[in-house]
Amino acid sequence: MFYKPDMMDAFADYDSAKYVIFGVPFDATSSFRPGSRWAPDAMRKASVNFETYNQHFDIDFEDLLIHDIGNLEPYSSVDETLEDLYHAVRPIVKDGKIPIMMGGEHSLTYPCVKACAEEAGEEIGFVVLDAHFDLREEYGGIRNNHACVSRHVRDDITDTYVTIGVRSGPKEEWVYAKENGIKYYTADDVRETGIKQVISEVKEYLGCKKIYLSLDMDAIDPAYAPGLGTPEPFGLTDIDVREVIRALAPISIGFDVMEIAPEYDNGISALLGTKLLREFIAAHAASEK
Amino acid sequence: MFYKPDMMDAFADYDSAKYVIFGVPFDATSSFRPGSRWAPDAMRKASVNFETYNQHFDIDFEDLLIHDIGNLEPYSSVDETLEDLYHAVRPIVKDGKIPIMMGGEHSLTYPCVKACAEEAGEEIGFVVLDAHFDLREEYGGIRNNHACVSRHVRDDITDTYVTIGVRSGPKEEWVYAKENGIKYYTADDVRETGIKQVISEVKEYLGCKKIYLSLDMDAIDPAYAPGLGTPEPFGLTDIDVREVIRALAPISIGFDVMEIAPEYDNGISALLGTKLLREFIAAHAASEK
Amino acid sequence: MFYKPDMMDAFADYDSAKYVIFGVPFDATSSFRPGSRWAPDAMRKASVNFETYNQHFDIDFEDLLIHDIGNLEPYSSVDETLEDLYHAVRPIVKDGKIPIMMGGEHSLTYPCVKACAEEAGEEIGFVVLDAHFDLREEYGGIRNNHACVSRHVRDDITDTYVTIGVRSGPKEEWVYAKENGIKYYTADDVRETGIKQVISEVKEYLGCKKIYLSLDMDAIDPAYAPGLGTPEPFGLTDIDVREVIRALAPISIGFDVMEIAPEYDNGISALLGTKLLREFIAAHAASEK
Amino acid sequence: MFYKPDMMDAFADYDSAKYVIFGVPFDATSSFRPGSRWAPDAMRKASVNFETYNQHFDIDFEDLLIHDIGNLEPYSSVDETLEDLYHAVRPIVKDGKIPIMMGGEHSLTYPCVKACAEEAGEEIGFVVLDAHFDLREEYGGIRNNHACVSRHVRDDITDTYVTIGVRSGPKEEWVYAKENGIKYYTADDVRETGIKQVISEVKEYLGCKKIYLSLDMDAIDPAYAPGLGTPEPFGLTDIDVREVIRALAPISIGFDVMEIAPEYDNGISALLGTKLLREFIAAHAASEK
Amino acid sequence: MFYKPDMMDAFADYDSAKYVIFGVPFDATSSFRPGSRWAPDAMRKASVNFETYNQHFDIDFEDLLIHDIGNLEPYSSVDETLEDLYHAVRPIVKDGKIPIMMGGEHSLTYPCVKACAEEAGEEIGFVVLDAHFDLREEYGGIRNNHACVSRHVRDDITDTYVTIGVRSGPKEEWVYAKENGIKYYTADDVRETGIKQVISEVKEYLGCKKIYLSLDMDAIDPAYAPGLGTPEPFGLTDIDVREVIRALAPISIGFDVMEIAPEYDNGISALLGTKLLREFIAAHAASEK
Amino acid sequence: MFYKPDMMDAFADYDSAKYVIFGVPFDATSSFRPGSRWAPDAMRKASVNFETYNQHFDIDFEDLLIHDIGNLEPYSSVDETLEDLYHAVRPIVKDGKIPIMMGGEHSLTYPCVKACAEEAGEEIGFVVLDAHFDLREEYGGIRNNHACVSRHVRDDITDTYVTIGVRSGPKEEWVYAKENGIKYYTADDVRETGIKQVISEVKEYLGCKKIYLSLDMDAIDPAYAPGLGTPEPFGLTDIDVREVIRALAPISIGFDVMEIAPEYDNGISALLGTKLLREFIAAHAASEK
Ligand SMILES: [Mn+2]
Ligand SMILES: [Mn+2]
Ligand SMILES: [Mn+2]
Ligand SMILES: [Mn+2]
Ligand SMILES: [Mn+2]
Ligand SMILES: [Mn+2]
Ligand SMILES: [Mn+2]
Ligand SMILES: [Mn+2]
Ligand SMILES: [Mn+2]
Ligand SMILES: [Mn+2]
Ligand SMILES: [Mn+2]
Ligand SMILES: [Mn+2]
């Protein structure tokens, strides 16, 4: 009769689970508005609002094997937290499960990509939805700053990197992206080209690689997601992002929803992030039917 | 010199009024976020923000006969509240007036439809803008739950039922809708088909019937209306909903705006709901000029 | 490495636990401001703020056997929820554990008292901290309304009833209290008499009975606890209430913290309620050392 | 069955009423945080939380003749608003009723005192609870600024002026108060002397005069009333203010509760102000039994 | 090492600056929700969120000469504030700089247009983005009300006036606009015609005139900017407004962002307003490269 | 005519100033609720609410030499931020000025004490108002965590350490405090002993030493200061803390107000912290008259 405040419909135990959801309540390098530490629990709370059934994919979450393993206990220090996170995610991947992280700040993506890439044993793609490049090498005196995550993944793990929704960065990042031939689509690009064309190009670029898909929620316009650490006007629509997730979930071996700062709205960012997390699972599960 | 905190421009007394506005501050079966009890007064407060003149219809509210009869005193129990509400609305309809309800939760719509249908003396249509089917027979141990309102209207009052904006429900509801040939347009349908085409099809389906028009505000995307009981991403635009109201108000004999939960934003949901309520009156009045 | 968002320091499993904490996210009969449904999770979140050690009692929670069993899944209907709650609490008591409830509305106290009283097998006392008498027989058309809980406990379960902090009620309740010789201390009484004298009188009145102790947080002044369903000015201080809990926990066989509505402040009511819950456990554990 | 969002228990019509409540949603000269324009409706909403019965005075509001005449329509300009307010209050007083204003900013007190004083036909006293002297002759280029109200009442209407709770002002005001022999009690004075002694001295000072009693809510400590235009730490307790109202209501011919800014808390300032307004009525009514 | 809470990237001193930013924390004639007094500081705070580089124009703010001169100390009275503001802006314009105001309410635009027009020495155009006509001659007893600003600019300073986004006004304003041949585009016009066509028509209408560009943020839909004094549904998109600013900044000799009321959201309106202010500077600077 | 959003009444330039105020918007090691980074600007905003005159000390801030030097640009890393802060404060002290810091988290106190102690050239005392001991050697993997500040000051800088208001800590801290003969007063001690007696004992303990006075705002009860990082019930009153500041300011050579998290209330914590900061200056200045 009693239930735990887990993500809704995460009825499976760890061993039988295909999808393993976890939260990392960590935001120590936040540059503007901290508070993404509250996102994992806010997303679990938001999940109560949603039905188990996804009509688009004709998928019922009651038929899926989802486990919510809880939150990682973070350190105050980002380096130790990332280290710990790596060691926590590595076995999940090794066990053949899809890790789904609820951030927390974007820096946490790095160890998850690393764990997935190692398990894959071949180059994977890294697809990021983000308003920012996150291509700095260091920021605020910290290498593992949230503003550097894509740089380090690209430098250390994989070249096959695409970012969608980008619209903010110092000149150096734009130059770096150009000079290094990085594949990116600004939010304006998406408005002009259409998300379907963008997705088609991204898929072609990725070839047959598996990917890690990372959603920094600030990719989305603040009208849809105002409760964020670094909200950036003129963003993607909620539908654009849903399309990307629907298209790329089937080739994803890891996923995350990052940077929601629930203190800065009355729940709609956590609701949207949770809905998109569930869309990821549905899209992935449908592709395996 | 003194004025009462009524809906703005509700200058008529009851007897002379054509449009009778009332609130029902009741939300006892709310499944996610309660608080629609505060909506009627929030909408009256919001109405202060708007001009008396509607330029689209060249209608000035100062020329209309609108009465704000106040709020219904609710019970804690939904059944007794609905019973009372029926007895409160029936005479309004009998007096040849258009009842306009500010919810409160969606369950309150049932007695209003019933009162209108009885007065009509012939089958009326029931058009609902909603993210949810509300087609359950019972929910949480309560038959008159907000999640069941369309089912009971359809079972008890009229088959001529259309719902627009739907995008959430357990599998059973989708199956039920299909099996019973229910006419529905998802929010995705509207995005693809265009609201004008949808309206045209709805009008054809309704034939020459009069209708009761019910706006569950969660039909609208949370970007426009975040302050709701059960916000559901990927919804209709504000403009879509305005188009439906403009098109259907002339054939409506009752209207309501439901499920606004004002504690969950800083006023914009109540502002939009109130604006749409006023658009209903203007559209209806313009059709009778 | 992962942890669940349980009440902090609830490290024991059910079988070994002495104290069993649970939440009941139910507020359907709320008469003024709903939202106590969010209190259990808000209290778990608040618990992160506190140290494991209680210096007053020299008790470390790490040495205690506490289990957080999760939340009860409520119905929309109060009667069915109370029925279910009774069946959920009865085995906890039967297993020799102390049930500690996080409300939810005050009506939920009834089945907990009942379960405790049945197990005790002899008359227990019922001590309530509350701004309100809750002595109505029925309210808003519902017998099991939060405004009636003390009446039903007194009528059905035990005469040995004291209430502290009361300062609001219809004339009938004051008359009823007088005529039935009910032992009550208003908040003004406490201010004049001093809480230590009040506690001493209460203890004498209770004799050697075991009690169920219920804390409706509105007993406390809104300065200390503004996030409540029915805040009532001129209340008890936080220290007064702590004194009562310290004094009566040792003779308590059940306890609850009710009526926190976390949407109506920024966390301090949940923090105070959680602190008092922990004070109860520490005081009880200290008395058994 | 329908009711208007009036102050609770204001069941009398104007003609039969003894107490006439009205709001003035005006805050145009606010120097720090505007928003007291929202207070009258917030107080009506808060009044729903309270019982009709006041146990201290054994007074039931259902037995009293109270009328809520609504809100005064304000101008943008303070001078015209005050002029209008005077003309609105004058007839209320002439009709032998007690005017009870819900501000709005403190400047609005002037025309109310004037209307009461004229009707009294003899010198009345002016007792103000306020953190501020409000003794400036002009502020921000406006004579009728909220920061000047006591000065103008004193200059134009009555010398018999006492202020309690004062703790903030430019040096000139403190000097002016000293040089003009103004009777004032700082919040520290009240803490040291005790409110009972202060009240006794005030009563002696007033002699047998009737008074106008004005409560600028910032007299009270922000712990009890954080939602204010100019909150000032180290204030009076809620109980202190209740004592003053209980003691002086019987000799009052007008009363107001001013400067609540409801956007700056979650309801507790409006709840306390409304409770104190009701305490005023109960105390006054009890004295006439 | 220390920095002042100025607008980010405003590194120039006054003498060398090309762009002079200032705030006017004044909102005394606000008709619905006051609080635009807090906007200048909220915009400075928001500016921390943005990068120095604008990729669309390839402009780095570190290369521009921007000065933040602080806030104007307002009076309580609108007339004196406007007088003062005129005398504060006139020298800025005389010194050949572009004044950029952060309101405060829209009435403040008048003295800025006047100062710019006088310096220009020839007729300038006045382009306003606004949900409202602001064409009243007087409102609430005050000539310089925010609801009158465009009327007075048109009457006193220039006939060359265009307004975009308008969708609210009393009938008299619509008639006045028609009868006086005022060039306006409603938000619906923009939706139907497309913003690029509108801009092209506006540019043709303006001929070779220099303009003052005024952005009343309520031109934008409340989904993008909910924190406003008078939010009006069915507005322009953020992208529409960005297009207008990009197109007209090069011919602007003054600019302002008005009517943000930061208490009514969690930062996104101030973020968007600040982003648009920066887009204005980038667009202007790019045109002079 | 323009002014900068500095702390009110900070009219002096750096060279002539006696009191130098600065903010450090840093909160990266926050263990519960981050957000003290917003406190310095919130305190500047709050300062607008207060008069220049302090009647208790007959001190007018217009007669004092106060400079607001702005905010320190923090790193993401605590170690580098503390290093930088030390180098920023050292010259202020060297110039014979009193540094007054607005935190930011409590860890920032360490470099300020160090800078002051070095300048003093003899042992200074360290008096802390805090709910927590902050005596850990390390926390969350970070030595310079806010929870360790007093330990490091005591270990590295001075043994003459007193803490008032303490009521929370792991058992190890209480034991450590006992074993090391640390002088502390719990909030309960203060309630029982009276703040005047406590102050007298503290002064005796300090002897003739100069001190650094640090106010972690969580020393104060959450009723007075709810907007904090780690609010702890059962705290000191606002008056208690004012008494300590009044008594110890005259012997202080540095002061700070730390840990306000303004997102967690509607301004009253920043108002109280700012008021206490101003009380410090007034008390210090009065002692030098
Ligand atoms: Mn990112
Ligand atoms: Mn980002
Ligand atoms: Mn519905
Ligand atoms: Mn719905
Ligand atoms: Mn109760
Ligand atoms: Mn109660
Ligand atoms: Mn005043
Ligand atoms: Mn005052
Ligand atoms: Mn305007
Ligand atoms: Mn406007
Ligand atoms: Mn500390
Ligand atoms: Mn602390």
Structural write-up:
6 copies of one chain form a homohexamer. The first copy, chain A, has helices at residues 39-47, 78-94, 109-120, 149-156, 171-179, 187-193, 195-206, 238-248, 268-287; strands spanning 2-3, 19-23, 53-54, 59-60, 66-72, 98-102, 125-129, 161-166, 183-186, 211-216, 252-258. Chain A is α/β, with parallel strands linked by helices and 289 residues long. Chain A has one domain (19-287): 3-Layer(aba) Sandwich (Arginase, Chain A), CATH 3.40.800. Chain A has an 8-stranded parallel β-sheet, with helices on both faces. In chain A, strand 3 (53-54) and strand 4 (59-60) form a beta hairpin. In chain A, helix 7 runs parallel beside helix 8 (238-248). Chain A starts with a strand and ends with a helix. The model of chain A has no long low-confidence stretch (mean pLDDT 97). The A-B interface holds A 48-53, 55-56, 60, 221, 223-224, 238-239, 242, 265-268, 271-272, 275-276 and B 32-33, 167-171, 174, 186, 188, 191, 221-223, 226-227, 230-234, 263-265. The complex binds manganese (II) ion (12 copies). The site of one manganese (II) ion (MN) has 6 residues of chain F, from loops. One manganese (II) ion binds next to loops of chain E.
**Sheet having the most strands of chain A:** 8 strands, parallel
User: N- to C-terminal separation of chain A?
Assistant: 32 Å
- Indicate the CATH architecture of chain A: 3-Layer(aba) Sandwich
Biggest protein-protein contact in the assembly: A-B, 23 and 24 residues
Average pLDDT metric of chain A: 97
Main CATH class of chain A: Alpha Beta
Count the E strands of chain A.
11
Radius of gyration of chain A: 17 Å
Low-confidence stretches of chain A: none
Q: Helical segment tally of chain A?
A: 9
CATH fold call of chain A: Arginase, Chain A
**Heteromolecules bound:** manganese (II) ion
Main sheet: strand order of chain A: 5-2-6-11-10-7-8-9
- Name the overall outline of chain A: globular
- Give the proportion of residues in helices of chain A: 25-40%
The multimeric state of the shown protein is: homohexamer
CATH homologous group name of chain A: Ureohydrolase domain
By secondary-structure content and strand pairing, the structural class of chain A works out as alpha/beta
- Tell me the count of domains of chain A: 1
In N-to-C order, the SSE pattern of chain A is EEHEEEHEHEHEHEHHEHEH
